[in-house]
Design a protein that fits this description.
The protein is of the alpha/beta class. It has two domains: about 200 residues, 3-Layer(aba) Sandwich (Rossmann fold); about 100 residues, Orthogonal Bundle (Helicase, Ruva Protein, domain 3). A hairpin with a 4-residue loop joins β3 and β4. The radius of gyration is 21 Å and the shape is globular.
Length: about 325
């Protein structure tokens, strides 16, 4: 039996608890020109305890974006440059012998921060990926025999360069699945790039980023996001989209093109991100457009293409487009 939902009350709650969103966006615009798509996806990850995988060429403000977001939320920030010789201890920390006390002390690594930038994540070997995976999934790390909880909020934004393959380690499917969204970053528009030039030449002043919200407000907003109303028809729509990628329920015309479909995490994350997008829009309910807007970001890294699909020049985006254009919208 469905419990009656007061949509108007939810709308008011969302607007009251989401007043900081515009303030964060305003702070981000001080240093980041354009890239509103990337900022919104970072906010969605922040509001849903999700992690973000960014793919884009160098120089597209990926590092600047998460650093600015950390400053605007008065949160701690760590940047980890992933290299082939990186060790797990370089990320999580290690035990250091103290000659004075004749005991081993814990030296915590850069993972102990609210915002983590894992730069060029696909350059690190498997052991490092495993250490990061525990932190992402369990929100804790193990050093020696002791486990340490990570601070909340905790957001990993990993980047990878799409054009360089030499010296890289493809991310395992299990780790890709842990990223809530995979976001593709493109070049700025001409006028946006003109403004970027003027910023860097000192023609336009670079404004200081001010903290406009604290982490306690973020944690409270997460509870509001989880309470946003999602109709059963929207749930069914999400399930239909995800099931369209799987062998037994695959969409007609995709047979032989998908080697493996999306996991249940895709359904969960599509629902969560749709709720977070409704929160960003100031609504207390989810619409089909919220789902459609996030579908590519949620599904693109969870679909495996067959050799036939790659031979035909198809991409994950082409598959998701076909699904979105075929599955009936409620």
């Amino acid at each position: 039996m469905n419990t009656p939902v007061d949509i108007e009350q939810l709308n008011q709650q969302v607007k009251a608890d989401g007043t900081f969103i515009q303030a964060i966006r305003a702070e981000c615009k001080k240093t980041i020109v354009g890239q509103s798509h990337m900022i919104d996806r970072l906010l969605i990850g922040l509001l849903t305890k999700g992690h973000i995988l960014l793919e884009g060429l160098p120089g597209l403000a990926k590092t600047l974006s998460i650093k600015t977001l950390a400053s605007a939320t008065n949160a701690s920030f760590s940047r980890i440059q992933f290299t082939p010789d990186l060790l797990p201890a370089d990320i999580i920390g290690t035990m250091i012998y103290n000659p004075g006390s004749r005991e081993f002390d814990v030296r915590k690594g850069p993972i102990f921060a609210n915002f983590i930038l894992a730069d060029e994540i696909n350059r690190a070997p498997a052991k490092v990926q495993s250490a990061l995976l525990e932190a992402m999934q369990e929100k804790q790390v193990t050093i020696g025999k002791e486990s340490f909880l990570l601070a909340e909020p905790f957001l990993v934004m990993a980047t990878q360069n799409p054009i360089e393959q030499e010296g890289t380690y493809p991310l395992p499917e299990a780790q890709l699945d842990r990223f809530m969204l995979k976001v593709i970053i493109d070049y700025p528009e001409k006028e946006e790039e003109r403004y970027i030039i003027r910023q860097n030449l000192g023609i336009v002043d670079n404004e200081k980023i001010n903290p406009v919200v604290n982490t306690d407000v973020i944690v409270k907003a997460r509870k509001t996001v989880s309470s946003i109303y999602m109709d059963e028809k929207i749930e069914n729509y999400i399930l239909d989209l995800v099931e369209s990628t799987r062998p037994k329920t695959m969409l007609k015309g995709l047979e032989g093109l998908i080697s493996h479909g999306a996991s249940p995490r895709a359904s969960i994350n599509l629902a969560l991100s749709a709720k977070a997008n409704a929160f960003l829009k100031g609504r207390g309910y989810v619409t089909p457009e919220d789902v459609r807007l996030l579908a590519k970001d949620v599904l693109r890294h969870r679909l495996g293409l067959s050799y036939e699909a790659e031979a035909e020049g198809m991409t994950q985006e082409d598959v998701v487009d076909k699904i979105l254009n075929t599955v009936v919208v409620p």
